[in-house]
Amino acid sequence: MHRLTDQEEELLTGWRRFELPQGARTEYREIRQEGIRCFLRWGAIGASGKASTSTLNDEQHAGRHASRKINEWLRKGFAEVERPFDVAELDQQTPVLDVIKSSARPHAPVPEYLPIDGFDETYHRSHAPDHPMGFHEYFVLRDEGRSAVRFTVRGQCHDPAAVSSFLAVLGARRDLPFDGQSHHKVPLPMPVGPFSHALFCAPALGQACIAYPAIAARVATAFPIFDCEIGDADPEVLIDARIHGHGALPYSDWSRRPQPVIDLRFDVQPSNYRRTQTFKVFTSADLKALLDVLPTATAQSWLEVRSFRDETKRFTPETAVPFPEVTPFLHS
Known about the structure:
By secondary structure, this protein is α+β, with helices and mostly antiparallel strands.
C-alpha cells in the first residue's frame, strides 16, 4: 500500500470533489485553490471531462470564489466525497524530462532532449523548426532534474547567439522562480538580442507544463522581454493577464517589436466599451479606439492610461490626443 508523504497529503487534500448521481451516470465537480487561481474539473464519471482555471485579483478573492462554487454545487444536490487517488499528480520524484518522455502516445516517437555543450543540466528539443508553427524548446534543470525552468523560441526567429546569452542568465538564476514569489522582472547583464530584461515566472503563473500533472508544479517559465512590456510593480494578476490573456505577449517570438503595458480605466460614453473603475489590461487597438471616440463623447467622459512605470495620464474630451502622441509615454 502506498503511504503518502506530508507533501503528497497536502497536494491531494488541495482538491475537493463533489458527486451527484443522475440516473445511470454520476456527475462530478472538483475544485482546488492555489494562490490567486481556482482550478475546476467537471464531467461524468467514465467520460471525458472538462477543466478551467479562474484567476482572481488576490488570494482572498480566490477563496471566496471557491466557496461560492462549492455552495452552488451543494444547493444542486452534490455531496462531497473522498477524491480518488491519482499517482500521476502525486509523483514528485520522477525527473521532469522522464515524465514528458513517458507521456508519449502509443506508437508515437519518444521525444528526445539533447544536452547543450557548455551549459550544465540544460537540454534542447526542436519541434519542426522549419515549419511556420515550429519552435525550439529548452529546459534548464535543477534539483537532480526533478524541477526545471523552461522557455521556447519560434523556429523562424531562433538565433543561437541570443539563446546562448539567455541560457547563461538562466543557468545562474535557475532557482529564482522557485523562491515563493510569483514572478521576477530582472535586468539582463547584457542584451539578449533586442531585449533588456527577463521575466521569471513561478510554475503556477507560467503554466509551462500544465498538460503534465506530475510536473506542472515543478516547471517554471522564463523569457526575455523589453522593459516596457511588464510593469515594474505589477501584481501577479496583471502579469497573468499580460502573458495569458487577450492580446497576450507573444513571448516565444524573439523578433517581435515592443508590446508595451497598456493599462486603462475609463468611462467613455458612447463607446463600445463597458466602463471600468479599476485599471485593467488592454491592447493598443483598444486604446486607439477609445482615443478616437473620446473627442465626441459626453462631457463627463474620461480615460486614464497607466504605463509600466506606474505613471498615469488622464484624458477628457477637451484634452484628448491622437494615439501616436501617447506612444512615447508607453515606451519610456
